[in-house]
Amino acid sequence: MTNKSKLWGGRFSEGTAASVEQFTASIHYDCRLYRHDIAGSRAHAKMLAEQGLITREECDRILAGLAEIEQEISDGRFEFKLELEDIHMNIEKVLVDKIGPAGAKLHTARSRNDQVSLDIRLYLREETERLTALLLDVQQAFVGLGRKYLGVIMPGYTHLQRAQPLLLSHHMLAYYEMFGRDRERLRDCLKRINILPLGSAALAGTGLPIDREYVARALDFPSITANSMDTVGDRDFAVEFVFCCTMIQLHLSRLSEELVLWSSEEFGFADLSDSFCTGSSIMPQKKNPDIPELIRGKSGRVVGNLMALVTLIKGLPLTYNRDLQEDKEPVFDTVDTVSQGLAITAELLANMEFKVDNLEAATRAGFMTATDLADYLVVKNIPFRQAHSIVGKTVAYCVELGKELTDLSLDELRRFSEAIDKDVFPVLTVKGSVDSRQSAGGTAQVRVEEALAQAEKDLGMQ
Ligand code: ARG
Fold this sequence. Notes:
It is a single chain. This protein is mainly alpha-helical and 462 residues long. It has 3 domains: 106 residues, Fumarase/aspartase (N-terminal domain) (Fumarase C, Chain B, domain 1); 249 residues, Fumarase C, Chain A, domain 2 (Up-down Bundle); 59 residues, Ribonucleotide Reductase Protein R1, domain 1 (Orthogonal Bundle). It is 60% helix and 5% strand. The chain has a two-stranded antiparallel sheet. Strand 1 and strand 2 form a beta hairpin. The protein binds arginine. The site of arginine (ARG) has 8 residues, from helix 7.
């Protein structure tokens, strides 16, 4: 294709070098935006007709042409051309070929600079909704597990050292909260995505009598952007969206790490379903947790995508610069990676089982009720710091004799503090410990039951 026949070819006398066409083209990835590009063009054409900038007939021809093109693309019959650079020009060129002069009027009062911003915003608006639905599936899976295993006690960890006993359901609901914040973050980000950029034109607005509010209504945007320069140079909303996705991926990754640990022989806390594990080509006994490992591994690319976008924006002068074309691949790859991760995690959770006996057995070692003993002494009016030291000495004694706190007799316990009486024994059990933690947000069964019921209500699971 010579430059003369390109949509922007008027001022050029020489053809574009093939290497340049290759280098500047984005059609191999921005073809993903075809539906959004066409939706934007429909609304724009109707506005042009409404404003008398094109006739009704021209508008109808444009709409019919766009409908044909949309069908051809979705059927896989449309031939994308590299030399037409991007999705905007591929569609526009074919429209002109199909319907003639009316097609050539579509780009009136529009630039690819505001057009591409519109396409990305429409795309991200859709993806935000899809990701929100996937997050809900994951949250439901956690609530399901929380309900199924209600009452099961497991060790809680800090520094990956046994710390205090807690309910497995409390652990499941911790993830419910994390993914809930992710949903909220997306909802908030949507406020800044969901603003109409079209009508900013190249950078300074247009002298033609357009109606931006009309286009906003047609495309269901609650408002329009305020400054044409800011609009065509702005990708904050895309960076923010990818950050929201990164947070989701990090949550998935932390969960994956726990699933890998829990399904190891060393922990033996969980059993991932056979259909969600893979084997080894040499070691016949192996059942490997490849899904959580891959999710953990894919965090690198999502974090990388966020870094790519942040770096892309740094140092760009106002307004549009071609650098901004580099926004799409990190955004698309992030959407693909995070949505796959969420979908497979929801399935994996729905198919896994916890090894209840092992969880409970693990609570029997590690002096996990030491804090409870200290709190017991506090109730007996011993200052907490002193109580801490008394219990520290008691634990050291146990370590030396290879005993647990529950193995000690009252006499042995009283060697460390006279304040200890026989009412101490229920305090030293893991059940007593869990039941006592009734502070708001704590792991006591009453609190966890309330939290579960609230989650079920919020997700409409009852
Ligand atoms: N493909 C371009 C992008 O994604 C579209 C906008 C191009 N505008 C321009 N004046 N070259 O950013």
